[in-house]
């Protein structure tokens, strides 16, 4: 019963650890996307500097606005994933501590059972 509970807790820890790793990969991807969008924004600004016509300026400004909105969205996503990764790390640490407590309880019970077994063996030898 304790071993099954321990096994279930270990499975939960592995699952949470995998989720954290997945969130970290997603965070890295969102961060990379934000950098790409920032690069695109800088490129668009450079093109805008080289354009003279009002029509060309409007098109570049629209592109800059679109890229800025994409960048803000990517930054928000990255922040959300950082928060989720932090929450999952906290949950993982809590589960580890709970598991350590259960292991200590099991170890204590095992010591008690061993002592009882030794006592019973001694009694049986005396009889």
Q: What descriptors fit this protein?
A:
0% strand; mainly alpha; 2 helices; 127 residues; 96% helix
Write the SSE topology.
Layout: H1 2-50, H2 54-126
Helix pairs in contact: 1-2
Characterization of this structure:
This protein has helices spanning 2-50, 54-126. It has 127 residues and is an all-alpha fold. The protein starts with a helix and ends with a helix. Helix 1 packs antiparallel against helix 2. It is built from two helices and no strands.
Main pleated-sheet profile: none
Helix count, DSSP H or I runs of 4 or more residues: 2
Low-confidence spans: pLDDT under 50, at least 5 residues?
A: none
Mean pLDDT figure: 85
Q: What is the CA-CA span between the terminal residues?
A: 34 Å
CA gyration radius, whole angstroms: 30 Å
For the secondary structure, the number of strands is: 0
Helix content: over 70%
Percentage of residues in strands: under 5%
Outline, from the CA principal axes? rod-shaped
Helix and strand succession?
A: HH
State the secondary-structure class.
mainly alpha
Entry summary:
By secondary structure, the protein is mainly alpha-helical. The chain has helices spanning 2-50, 54-126.
